[in-house]
Structure formats: C-alpha cells, structure tokens
Known about the structure:
The protein has two domains: about 1-105 and about 220-255, Periplasmic binding protein-like II (D-Maltodextrin-Binding Protein, domain 2), CATH 3.40.190; about 110-215, Periplasmic binding protein-like II (D-Maltodextrin-Binding Protein, domain 2, 3-Layer(aba) Sandwich). The protein is about 45% helix and about 25% strand. The protein has helices at about 1-25, 40-50, 65-70, 85-90, 125-135, 145-160, 160-165, 175-185, 195, 230-240, 245-250, 275-280, and strands at about 30-35, 55-60, 80, 95-105, 110-115, 135-140, 170, 190-195, 205-210, 215-225, 255. Strand 1 (about 30-35), helix 2 (about 40-50) and strand 2 (about 55-60) form a beta-alpha-beta unit.
Amino acid sequence: MKNSIMLAAAGFAATMLLSQAGVVNAAEIKVMSANGLQEVMENLGPKFERVSGHKLAITFATLGVVVKRVQDGETADVVIIPREGINNFVKDGNVAAGNVTVIAHGEIAVAVRKGAPKPDIWSLEALKRTLLAAKSITYIDPALGSESGIHVADQIERLGIANEMKAKTVLAKTAKDVGILVANGTAEIGVAQFQVLVSIAGIELVGPLSVELQETLVFSAAIMAGAKNAEAAKALVNFLHTPEAAAVIREKGMHPGTDSIKIAVRTENEEAPTEATSFSR
C-alpha cells in the first residue's frame, strides 16, 4: 500500500510539473514513432497535451522508414522506435546516448481467424509443421524495414522452409494489415507484434512465438540532437514514464520500460494459454 501511494504521488507530481511548464512555454513537439506504438501514443498524446499545454505532431511509420527519414535529413524533437534504430542514430551523432530511454517492450505473436482451430506453435518443430500445413500466412514485408517483419522472415529461413512458404505468403504493409488479412480470410495465419494484433476484431491470438524464435522489441525514445524544443521533448519523455503511461502501455498489451521482460514458456505436454492476457502481461 505504501509503495502504491508513493507511485501515485510521484505520478501526480510529474503531472503538476508538466502542467505548470506547459502554461509558461507551450510548444509543438515533432515526434516520429514506430507503427507498433501507434495505439499507445494516440491514447497518451491527448493526455500529455492536456496536462502540459504542449502540442504533439506525430507521424507513424516502420522502423526502416523512420531511420531513412532521419538519415535523409528530416528533423524531429523525439523519435520512438525499436532500440536497433536508435543505436544507429547514436553512432551517427544524431542522438546523445544519455538522451535515450526505454519506453516499452513488445513481443511477436501468432494469430488465426476467430473461431478457427488454434495450431501448435510451442516448439520449433511444431511451428514448422504448422506453417507447412497452413494454406497461407501473412507478416509484414521485410523490405519495408519493419523489425518484426524482418525477424519473421529470418526465422522462416532458420526453420529451413523459406522456399516452401514463398508461394503461400501474403506480405502486409503494417502489423494492422496482418490482422485484417487474417480476419477477412485472406491468410490463415498471421505473425506480427502482439500489441497491434490484440486490437484487431475478428481474430484470436494463439500465443507468442516460442522462446527460441521470439524477438522482444525494445521501443526507446530519443531526444534528437537537433531538437527545436528540447525541454518540451524532455517533458514528453518524462510523461511516458509516469504510472499513468505505464497503465496504458500494459492495457495495450506491452510491458512498460521499467518492467522486467517475461516471455511465456510452455512444454509440448502443457496446454496452450486460453486467453491473450495469460501470455501478454
């Protein structure tokens, strides 16, 4: 109870500071964000604007697209993408390492159409059999620079079934499209970021990829070296670490940056989780 009170007090204090700062120096903060955090940012953005007085101008794209835009000279105050892309910015001098913080962790999951039998994905061999037996699968086109799409393609290659899967693979533009293609029956199995799939109507989550194949996506926020509104950018990043933000991140099926990462492990003799929440949070 004492810890809960302290956390609530800290959140209230952070909100008050943001509110006071916003009244004096309201600014527009330009944000580039990965698609995987779109629902989180669309939920938290208006809340931050209310308490801070600042305005957010957010654009969403894949990791690869955001990285290319920055490398081509486009500026932003804050960039929120998987850590792999942020590391490139640090090497290029676009971000100081001390201005990078982890916002959330996400996992890659498998989904099927609502009401369809849930296949066995709980070991390397089981997933291999499931993919080979499927009439069609979908994941994000790796060429678009999505970390999850690249990872799924790499793991299919690792399983030694890349040639067999080519003819029955429907490549999607976004993780949301993966869910839609499964929901409308275009693809039998979809593999994408859990936090996106969980919000798509008409599909059911089977579970995360097995530990051997899983890729935990670490989404980090970087205050860019050329930020025009550095103080406002810092206020946004601080807000994304408040208890209020952590609650939304969990609600959307991710783990806040302060949480330890826990990926479900199941042996072949155990039953699969019956609800998404049993393996997502």
